[in-house]
Design goal:
This protein has about 230 residues and is mostly helical. The chain contains twelve helices and no strands. The longest helix is centred in the middle third of the chain and has 28 residues.
């Protein structure tokens, strides 16, 4: 446990001492601050539903940038073999990198919670949809980071890892549009692979275990496949 904690601390420091974390944070806060102000000005409604969907889209674009360096950069610099010869397991390496990246996602959401505080100060929002929306965003981020770490484990170049992750995220963003064109039972199967289908209930105030299970399964599967990819290095 002490070795894993040290590894997690190392990965967290490596992420937050890089320019990537601060560029992503700055871009996220700038875009969302403008979006929140504009949405509130136009709708005059104490709700964050529109903001949640905009954060959802931003996560699709920024998570590949956050996760692309996790393992691909280690392989490019030829430090992955050195890391894996340390007294830690492959699973611990993957999970440490996963949690460090997820920590940045959690920080982004924590900083964006100022929007909810402003609504509470100057309006009377419904807190149920706000809480469920943030839960949904955290689960979405967890699933996306899992996939991002897996693609980084496969790629030898961080740009390739980012492009593969982005392509997968965009595919599973719009895949429900293709699902509706298919006959039973394939339409339901393909539609249920959509990120939008599983995120929308959270953003609108509904929480279903099936939707939470979908994102958790994404995270677990991504980490498992990343460990297997390292095992075949």
């Amino acid at each position: 446990m002490n070795r894993f904690a040290a590894l997690l601390g190392k990965e967290t420091r490596a992420l937050f001492t890089s320019s990537v974390a601060y560029v992503v944070l700055a871009a996220f806060l700038l875009i969302m601050g403008y979006s929140f102000s504009l949405t509130l000005f136009l709708t005059h409604t104490p709700s964050l539903v529109h903001v949640f969907f905009q954060i959802y889209v931003l996560f699709l674009l920024t998570v590949p940038v956050i996760t692309m360096r996790t393992l691909a950069e280690e392989r490019r610099q030829r430090t992955l073999e050195l890391l894996l010869t340390a007294p830690v397991t492959e699973a611990q390496v993957v999970v440490a990198k996963y949690l460090a990246s997820l920590g940045l996602i959690a920080l982004m959401l924590a900083l964006s919670s100022v929007y909810a505080l402003l609504l509470g100060l100057f309006g009377a929002p419904e807190w149920g949809p706000i809480v469920s929306g943030y839960v949904g965003l955290l689960l979405l981020g967890a699933g996306l980071v899992g996939v991002g770490v897996f693609t980084s484990a496969l790629a030898a170049n961080q740009v390739v890892a980012a492009l593969v992750s982005l392509s997968l995220f965009l595919l599973f963003w719009i895949i429900d549009q293709f699902g509706y064109l298919l006959p039973d039972p394939y339409n339901a199967l393909v539609t249920n692979l959509s990120l939008s289908v599983h995120f929308k209930p959270f953003a609108t105030g509904s929480v279903y275990l099936s939707d939470a299970g979908f994102f958790i399964s994404m995270a677990l599967l991504g980490n498992l496949l990343a460990v297997r990819a390292l095992g075949r290095r």
